[in-house]
Amino acid sequence: MLARLATSPALPDAPRLTLFVVLVFVAVYVGMALGRWPGLGLDRTGIALIGGIGLGLAGAVTPDAALAAIDFPTLFVLFGLMILSARFAESGFYDWCVARIAAARTGPAALLALTVGVTGVLAAVLSNDVVVFAMTPLLCLGLQARGLDPRPFLIALAGAANAGSAATMIGNPQNILIGQSGRLDFFDFLLACGPPALASLAIVHVTVLLVWRGRWFVASEGGPVAPRIDRAELAWAGLATLALLALFASPLPQAESVLIIGGLMLLSRNLATRTILGLVDWSLLVLFAGLFVVTAAFSETGLPAAAVGWLAANGLPIADPLVLTTLAVGGSNTVGNVPAVMLFLRVVPDAGPGLLYALALLSTLAGNLLLVGSLANIIVAERAAAVGVRLSFRTHAACGIPMTLASLVLALLWLVGLGYLPGP
Q1: pLDDT digits (tens, 9 = 90+) for 71-112
Q2: In a domain, 405, yes or no
Q3: Which end of the chain has fewer CB atoms surrounding its CB within 10 Å, N or C?
Q4: Which has the minimum average pLDDT: 26-35, 147-156, 321-330, 382-391?
Q5: SS3 at position 126
Q6: Where are the alpha helices (DSSP H) in 301-389?
Q7: What range defines the domain where residue 243 resides?
Q8: How many angstroms separate the first and last alpha carbons of the chain?
Q9: Which of 21, 34, 53, 71 is nearest to 341 (CA)?
């Protein structure tokens, strides 16, 4: 099978090459789980990139095969959405939203609901990672100025960003990947995943409210937050978002739609192109490219397909709700939901829309389980630490575990009830 990936006459024999590919795959995915290789400063992006380079140098993947393995439409969608989100950030919109939340004249319970609602809506359209990156520091400062403990609100921020992003095909990287792989319709995806995502937002609110009841207040720190907002910049970004949704309803391919909007977002009287492109998460794009190559090589060994066949032969088909949920929870909270989804799509390349909707919904909601379950959670913890607020693994888990279990049960009932997954 690896002959389709490598054509060099100097190749080692097939069993040795297969073993090498498996070792590289394991090393890369262990790195995804740990976040680094022990003793080195490499992050997940560096690990994926080195894995792809190693496969190429060993002859396991030819340059043409590596390019063919990379799903460029997915990268184009991510790139365009990053530019759009960057223009919202430059307008001061995220800071304005957080300041309005923190200054709202209401009690902690209503303030928590406001945090969940605003974050969920923004994450569904502007990507969960971008939203929490922009909102976390100012939310901490604004809540501390009111004498409120930021930690329950940070947990709600991360939980709502994940839950809200599950609603749409552009809410997070794994949904973008799934949508492009299955050529799914944007609005069909919304109808399938939107209702359980909305219900999960309510579960996030109720869970944090119950776990933190009576423990909202701390000593007041700092003063009021007063961000600046560029109304013209915000109006331009808002119009671009509406135009993007309109293009999604047209026959134009989604990657082309997003690139059109991304190109228009580069037009600015005040922001240089270099400035806008500097806000793009190039590291994430390189991570995707590296993982595309590594998972493609591993898929070609035939081992993943054999594993799926073994499960099916033993009464555990991958479309079974419990099997799929177990894989989603395990994958999201070890190697991460993006690498896990990427591997799944390689193993089950002919998955139908129902299974893809389920994969998107379950893998995203599973990311709320533990602090390491999603990149959005990690971003919240790191950005909060930068302004002196520590969100520990245990503190997050106290809310993350019950909110995730409840959300997954509800999502499974929805998916099975509407026939997206087979019933018992």
Answers
A1: 898 899 889 998 998 899 888 998 888 888 888 888 899 999
A2: yes
A3: C
A4: 26-35
A5: helix
A6: 303-313, 321-332, 337-347, 353-365, 375-385
A7: 72-280+307-417
A8: 36
A9: 71
